[in-house]
Amino acid sequence: MNESESQPPVYKGRGVRQGEIILRTHTRRNIFLAGLAGAIFLGFIWLIMAHATHHIVS
């Protein structure tokens, strides 16, 4: 085993950045926003249901 095989690869910071959301078209932007709004809406529904079932049981 030579020295280059024992060392892990080294990556530059610019090449490994993650999390960039590219929304170039209106359709992609609308789909992204609809999914985001849907997730928030489901969270609110879950909170309301959890609160309501807590009052029913008590």
Going by helix content, strand content and strand pairing, the class is: mainly alpha
First-residue to last-residue Cα separation: 68 Å
Principal-axis shape equals: elongated
Order of helices and strands: HH
Mean pLDDT across all amino acids: 83
Helical coverage, percent range: 55-70%
Largest sheet: none
What does this structure look like?
The radius of gyration is 23 Å and the shape is elongated. The longest helix is centred in the C-terminal third of the chain and has 32 residues, at 26-57. The chain has helices at 3-6, 26-57. With 58 residues, the protein is an all-alpha fold. It starts with a helix and ends with a helix.
Set out the fold topology:
Elements lengths: L2 H4 L19 H32 L1
Task: Please tag this protein with its features.
58 residues; mainly alpha; 2 helices; elongated
What is the compact description of this entry?
With 58 residues, the chain is an all-alpha fold.
